[in-house]
Backbone:
C-alpha cells in the first residue's frame, strides 16, 4: 500500500511539474492543481497511513494524526484561492497582451 | 546616562544644523558648534575620574537574542579619542565657516559633519562589539557623503565611491570577525571580550577572526595594500580632510587596534602581520609623499605613512610601544589637522594647491607661513615639537625588537629610511610653498586669511609646541590613563621628557634629519627617476579592473538568469530545489524503514490507478484543454477518495467541495481563453522538462515512501489529549483549526479575502479579449435546462440546511466553517449556473464584499475578545447549554471564530465566481450569464 501511495504521489508531482513548465497559462494552472494534489497527499502522509481511524475523540480507540490534516485542509482552501488568482491573472494578461503565453510579451497577431 | 547623551549629542546637533540651514552662515556655525562644545564640557567634567583610572559604563538591553545591547564605556582610551573627536571637530567647524563658499550649502555640510562626529563618538565609546560595528558602518556611510560633498565633481564622486567600497568591504570583514569573536567568548560585551584574551588566542578560529578584524582595521586606516582610497578622498572639502584624516576616520582603525589589543595581540601571527603591514605602509607613504605635487596629496601620503608608523608600533613586542603609538596618535592628530588647514588656507587664498606653481608665499602670508613651518617641523620630528618625542620613543622601541626573528634589524633601518623621506617631504611642503622667490601668475592674489580662519591653526600649533616642550605636564596623565586602559596591564617605567641624553635614537633622528635635507636638495634627481616609473593611477585601476569588471560580470549574471521568461525561471527553480533536496537526502542509508507495510486491497488499487491514469491523460491531452480539464477533475475526485481511505473525513468534504468550485471556475476561464494550446515546445525542451519532472516526481515519491515506512513520534498526542478538555470539541482537526492553531487559520482566511479582493481588482475595468465572440452568440441562445431549473428550486434551501448542519456539527464531527462555507457557495453557484446571472441577481445581492469583510472581522473580534477576559489572544471558552426543545448542546466560543471562517469562504468564493461570470454579458448578449 505504501508503495502504491508513493507512486501516486510521484505521478501527480511529476505530471504537475511538467505542466507547470509549459509555455501557455492554462496548462500551467492545471499543472499547479496536479502539483497541489500531490503535495497535499504527501503532507497527509506525514501522519502515516491509517485506515478507519479518524481523529474524532471516542472511548478506547486509536486515532490518526490530526495535525497534517488540519494543515492540508487550509492548504486546499488556500490552494483554491491561489488557483483562482492566477487564472484570473492569466485572463487579464491575455486581455492586455492578446496572447496567453507565460512570457507576457505582446504579440502582433491576437488570438493565435 | 551621561555617556549616552555624549554619543547622542552630535546627532541631535546634526538636526539643529539642518534646521538652521536657512539662517545666515554665522548663526548656523554657532548653532552647530553648540553640540561639540557642550559635549566637550561634559567630557572634561568626567576628566578627573577617568584620569584616576576609573571606568564608566552604562548598559541598556536591546536585542538580547542577537547579543546586541546599548552599552557604552568611557575609559582612558575612549576619553582620549573622544577628546580628539570633539575638540578637533569644534576647530574644524570654526574653520569650515570661512572655508566654504557661499554656493555651498553650509547647513548640509555641518549636519553631515556632526553626523560623522556622532558615529565616531559611538565607535570610541561602544561597550558592545556589535554596536561598535554599527557605528563603524555609520562612519563609512557618513564619510562617503562628506567626501562626495561636492557631488557635481566627478573626482569627488569617484573618491567617495572608492572610499565607501574599500571601507565598506572592510566593515563586512570586521563584522564577520566580530561574530567569530562573539562566538568564541560567548558574548559581544566588550568588557568580557577583553577579559577573555587567553581563551580567544587559544581557540582554533583565532587566526580567522584576527585576519578578518585586521582587514576591517587596515581598510579603514588606509594600510598597504588598501591605502589607495585615502589620497582620492582628498577631493573632499579641506575641512573634511582635516577632520577625517587627522583625528577621526582613519584613526578609527588604529583605535580598534588599540581597543582589541588585550584580546587579540600577543601571538606571532599578530606581531608579524601588524608589524609588516605597518612597516611597508610607513615606507611606501613616506616615499610617495615626496613626489606628490598637490599639497593635499602630499599630506594624504604623509598620513598613510604616519598611520603605518602607528600600526607598526602596535605590532612591536614591547608594552612601551603601545604608549608610543597612543602618544603618536595624539601628536599626529594635532599637527596633521593644522597642516591640512594651512593647505586649505593656501588653496583658499591663492586658488591653487600645486607645489610647482606656489612659491614665496611668506611675503604675502607670513603668519600662516610661520604656523605651517612649526606644524611641518612637528611632522618631520624636529626637537621641541611633539612629533619629535613620539618619533624618538618609536626609534627607541624599534631597536629592541625581536618580532621578525633574524630580520628584526630591518625595523630600525627601514624606520630611519622612512624618516629621511618624511623630513624631505616636510621640507618640500614648507620650503617650496612659503619660501623661495615670489610666485608667478596665481589664480588669486594671495593675502592673509581672516583671523578666525587662522585661529584653529594657531590653537593646534600652540598645542604642538606645548606638548613638545612640556610633555609630562600637558599629556602625561592622559597618556598614562589611555595606555593603562589599552593594555589592561601595569605600564612599564617611562619618562616623558624633551631630553634623554645622547643615545642611539637621538643619533638616528639626527642622521635622518641630515639625510632628509640632502634628499630634498637633490629632489630633482629623484623626480626624474620617479617620472621614469610607469604611471599607475589608482582610480583607473580601481574603476576599470575592479569596479567595471565586477559590475560587468554582475550584469552578465543578471542578464543570463533574469531573461524575462518565467518558463526558464521555473525550470531553474525546480532544478535547484530538486538538486538541493537530493543532495541532502542522498546519504539516506536504506529507503525502507522498520514500519510494517499495509496490505493492498482492490478498491484502493483501482482508485490509485484511476488517479495515475487520469493524471497522465491530463498531461498527454493538455493541448485539448477542455478534455484535459475533465481528466483533471477525475484526479481531484480520486484524491478525495484517497483522503477517505486514509482516515481524513474532513479533507474529503473539503476536497470535494473545492473540486466543484475549482472546475466551475476553470470552465468559466476556458470560455475566455483559447480552447487549444499550440504545440510550441521543441522536442529537446520537452525532453528536458520531462527529465526534470521525472526527477521531481520520483524524488518526492521516494521521500514519501521513506517517511511512510518509518515510525515516528508526533506532537499530535497533545492535541488529541486536550481537544475535548481544552477546545470543547471531539473533532480534533476542527479544534486544531479554530482553537489550537487559530491564529494560522485567521491568517489563512485573510489570504483568501485578499485573493478575492485582488481578483475583483484584476477583473475591474478589464479589456476583455474574446476570440469566440461569434461562437458565444450561438451558445448563449441556448435555453437553460428546465429540468435543472426546477430541480434546483428545492435544492437551495436543502443545501443551505445541510451547510448549517455541517457547520454546527463541525466541532465534534467532520465538518466546520471551511466546508460549510464551500457548500453554501456551491448552492449559490448552482443558482447562477441553472438560471443565469441576471435572474439570480434580481433575487440575490451581487455585493459580496461586506460578507468577506464581516467574516474576517468576526474572526478577528472573536480572537481579540479573550483579551477582555484577561486571557491571551484566541483563548476559547466552552460550556453546556440547555435549550428548550433542542436539548443539551455544547457551545464553544470557537464557533464564533468558525462563523467568521464560514462567512469569509462564502463571500470570497462567490465574489470570485460571480465576477468572472459577469464578464461574459459584456461581450455576449445582454441577458445571459453563467457557464
Residues:
Amino acid at each position: 500500500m505504501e508503495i502504491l501511495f508513493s507512486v501516486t504521489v510521484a505521478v501527480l508531482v511529476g505530471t504537475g511539474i511538467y505542466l507547470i513548465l509549459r509555455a501557455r497559462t492554462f496548462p500551467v494552472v492545471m499543472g499547479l492543481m496536479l502539483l497541489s494534489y500531490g503535495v497535499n497527499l504527501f503532507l497527509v502522509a506525514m501522519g502515516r497511513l491509517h485506515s478507519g481511524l479518524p481523529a474524532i475523540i471516542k472511548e478506547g480507540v486509536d486515532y490518526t494524526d490530526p495535525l497534517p490534516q488540519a494543515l492540508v485542509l487550509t492548504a486546499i482552501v488556500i490552494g483554491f484561492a491561489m488557483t483562482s488568482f492566477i487564472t484570473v491573472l492569466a485572463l487579464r494578461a491575455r486581455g492586455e497582451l492578446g496572447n496567453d503565453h507565460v512570457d507576457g510579451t505582446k504579440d502582433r497577431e491576437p488570438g493565435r | 546616562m551621561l555617556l549616552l547623551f555624549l554619543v547622542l549629542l552630535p546627532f541631535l546637533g546634526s538636526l539643529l544644523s539642518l534646521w538652521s540651514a536657512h539662517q545666515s552662515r554665522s548663526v548656523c556655525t554657532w548653532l552647530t558648534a553648540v553640540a561639540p562644545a557642550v559635549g566637550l564640557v561634559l567630557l572634561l567634567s568626567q576628566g578627573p575620574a577617568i584620569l584616576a583610572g576609573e571606568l564608566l559604563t552604562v548598559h541598556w538591553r536591546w536585542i538580547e537574542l542577537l547579543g546586541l545591547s546599548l552599552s557604552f564605556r568611557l575609559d582612558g582610551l575612549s576619553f582620549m579619542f573622544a577628546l580628539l573627536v570633539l575638540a578637533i571637530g569644534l576647530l574644524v567647524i570654526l574653520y569650515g565657516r570661512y572655508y566654504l563658499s557661499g554656493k555651498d550649502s553650509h547647513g548640509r555640510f555641518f549636519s553631515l559633519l556632526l553626523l560623522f562626529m556622532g558615529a565616531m563618538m559611538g565607535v570610541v565609546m561602544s561597550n558592545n562589539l556589535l554596536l561598535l560595528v554599527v557605528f563603524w558602518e555609520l562612519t563609512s556611510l557618513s564619510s562617503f557623503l562628506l567626501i562626495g560633498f561636492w557631488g557635481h565633481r566627478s573626482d569627488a564622486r569617484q573618491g567617495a565611491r572608492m572610499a565607501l567600497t574599500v571601507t565598506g568591504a572592510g566593515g563586512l570583514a570586521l563584522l564577520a570577525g566580530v561574530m567569530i569573536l562573539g562566538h568564541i567568548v560567548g558574548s559581544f560585551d566588550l568588557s568580557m571580550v577583553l577579559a577573555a584574551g587567553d581563551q580567544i588566542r587559544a581557540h582554533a578560529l583565532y587566526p580567522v577572526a584576527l585576519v578578518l578584524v585586521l582587514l576591517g582595521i587596515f581598510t579603514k586606516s588606509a594600510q598597504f595594500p588598501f591605502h589607495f582610497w585615502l589620497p582620492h578622498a582628498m577631493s573632499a572639502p579641506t575641512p573634511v580632510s582635516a577632520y577625517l584624516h587627522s583625528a577621526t576616520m582613519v584613526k578609527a582603525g588604529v583605535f580598534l587596534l588599540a581597543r582589541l589589543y588585550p584580546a587579540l595581540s600577543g601571538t606571532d601571527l599578530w606581531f608579524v602581520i601588524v608589524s609588516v603591514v605597518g612597516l611597508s605602509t610607513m615606507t611606501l607613504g613616506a616615499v610617495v609623499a615626496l613626489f606628490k605635487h598637490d599639497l593635499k596629496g602630499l599630506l594624504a601620503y604623509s598620513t598613510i605613512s604616519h598611520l603605518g608608523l602607528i600600526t607598526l608600533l602596535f605590532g612591536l613586542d614591547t608594552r612601551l610601544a603601545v604608549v608610543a603609538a597612543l602618544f603618536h596618535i595624539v601628536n599626529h592628530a594635532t599637527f596633521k589637522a593644522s597642516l591640512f588647514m594651512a593647505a586649505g588656507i593656501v588653496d583658499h587664498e591663492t586658488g591653487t594647491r600645486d607645489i610647482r606653481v606656489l612659491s614665496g608665499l611668506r611675503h604675502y602670508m607670513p603668519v600662516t607661513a610661520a604656523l605651517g613651518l612649526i606644524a611641518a617641523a612637528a611632522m618631520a620630528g624636529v626637537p621641541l615639537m611633539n612629533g619629535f618625542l613620539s618619533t624618538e620613543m618609536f626609534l627607541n622601541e624599534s631597536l629592541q625588537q625581536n618580532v621578525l626573528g633574524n630580520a628584526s634589524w630591518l625595523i630600525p633601518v627601514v624606520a630611519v629610511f622612512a624618516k629621511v623621506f618624511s623630513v624631505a617631504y616636510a621640507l618640500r611642503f614648507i620650503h617650496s610653498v612659503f619660501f623661495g622667490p615670489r610666485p608667478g601668475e596665481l589664480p588669486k592674489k594671495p593675502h592673509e586669511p581672516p583671523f578666525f580662519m587662522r585661529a584653529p591653526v594657531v590653537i593646534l600649533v600652540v598645542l604642538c609646541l606645548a606638548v613638545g616642550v612640556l610633555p609630562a605636564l600637558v599629556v602625561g596623565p592622559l597618556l598614562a590613563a589611555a595606555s593603562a586602559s589599552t593594555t589592561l596591564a601595569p605600564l612599564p617605567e617611562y619618562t616623558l621628557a624633551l631630553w634623554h641624553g645622547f643615545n642611539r635614537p637621538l643619533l638616528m633622528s639626527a642622521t635622518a634629519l641630515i639625510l632628509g635635507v640632502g634628499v630634498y636638495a637633490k629632489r630633482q634627481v629623484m623626480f626624474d627617476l620617479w617620472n621614469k616609473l610607469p604611471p599607475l593611477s589608482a582610480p583607473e585601476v580601481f574603476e576599470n579592473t575592479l569596479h567595471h569588471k565586477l559590475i560587468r560580470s554582475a550584469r552578465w549574471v543578471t542578464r543570463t538568469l533574469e531573461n524575462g521568461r518565467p518558463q526558464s525561471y521555473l525550470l531553474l527553480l525546480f532544478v535547484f530545489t530538486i538538486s538541493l533536496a537530493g543532495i541532502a537526502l542522498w546519504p539516506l542509508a536504506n529507503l525502507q524503514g522498520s514500519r510494517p507495510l499495509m496490505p493492498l486491497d482492490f478498491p484502493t488499487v483501482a482508485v490509485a490507478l484511476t488517479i495515475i491514469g487520469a493524471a497522465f491523460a491530463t498531461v498527454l491531452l493538455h493541448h485539448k484543454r477542455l478534455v484535459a480539464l475533465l481528466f483533471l477533475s477525475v484526479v481531484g475526485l480520486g484524491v478525495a477518495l484517497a483522503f477517505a481511505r486514509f482516515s481524513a473525513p474532513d479533507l474529503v468534504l473539503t476536497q470535494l467541495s473545492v473540486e466543484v468550485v475549482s472546475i466551475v471556475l476553470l470552465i468559466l476561464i476556458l470560455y475566455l481563453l483559447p480552447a487549444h494550446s499550440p504545440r510550441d515546445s521543441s522536442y529537446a525542451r520537452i525532453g528536458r522538462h520531462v527529465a526534470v519532472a521525472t526527477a521531481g516526481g520520483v524524488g518526492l515519491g521516494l521521500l514519501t515512501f521513506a517517511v511512510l515506512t518509518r515510525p515516528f513520534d508526533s506532537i499530535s498526542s497533545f492535541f488529541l489529549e486536550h481537544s475535548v478538555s481544552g477546545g470543547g470539541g471531539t473533532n480534533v482537526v476542527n479544534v486544531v483549526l479554530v482553537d489550537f492553531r487559530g491564529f494560522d487559520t485567521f491568517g489563512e482566511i485573510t489570504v483568501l479575502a485578499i485573493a478575492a479582493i485582488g481578483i475583483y481588482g484584476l477583473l475591474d475595468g478589464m479589456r476583455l479579449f474574446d476570440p469566440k465572440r461569434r461562437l458565444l452568440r450561438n451558445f448563449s441562445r441556448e435555453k437553460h435546462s428546465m429540468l435543472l431549473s426546477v430541480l434546483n428550486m428545492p435544492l437551495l434551501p436543502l443545501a443551505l440546511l445541510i451547510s448549517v448542519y455541517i457547520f454546527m456539527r463541525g466541532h465534534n464531527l467532520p465538518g466546520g466553517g471551511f466546508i460549510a462555507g464551500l457548500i453554501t457557495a456551491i448552492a449559490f453557484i448552482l443558482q447562477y449556473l441553472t438560471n443565469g446571472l441576471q435572474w439570480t441577481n434580481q433575487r440575490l445581492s451581487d455585493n459580496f464584499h461586506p460578507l468577506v469583510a464581516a467574516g474576517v472581522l468576526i474572526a478577528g473580534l472573536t480572537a481579540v475578545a479573550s483579551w477582555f477576559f484577561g486571557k491571551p489572544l484566541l483563548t476559547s471558552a466552552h460550556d453546556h447549554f440547555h435549550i428548550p426543545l433542542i436539548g443539551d448542546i455544547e457551545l464553544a466560543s470557537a464557533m464564533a471564530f468558525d462563523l467568521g471562517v464560514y462567512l469569509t469562504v462564502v463571500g470570497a468564493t462567490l465574489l470570485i465566481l460571480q465576477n468572472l461570470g459577469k464578464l461574459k454579458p459584456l461581450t455576449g448578449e445582454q441577458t445571459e450569464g453563467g457557464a
Confidence is low (pLDDT under 50) at residues 108-112 of chain A. Residues 36 and 79 of chain A are 7 Å apart (CA to CA). The first helix of chain A runs from residue 2 to 20. Chain A touches chain B through 89 residues (CB under 8 Å).
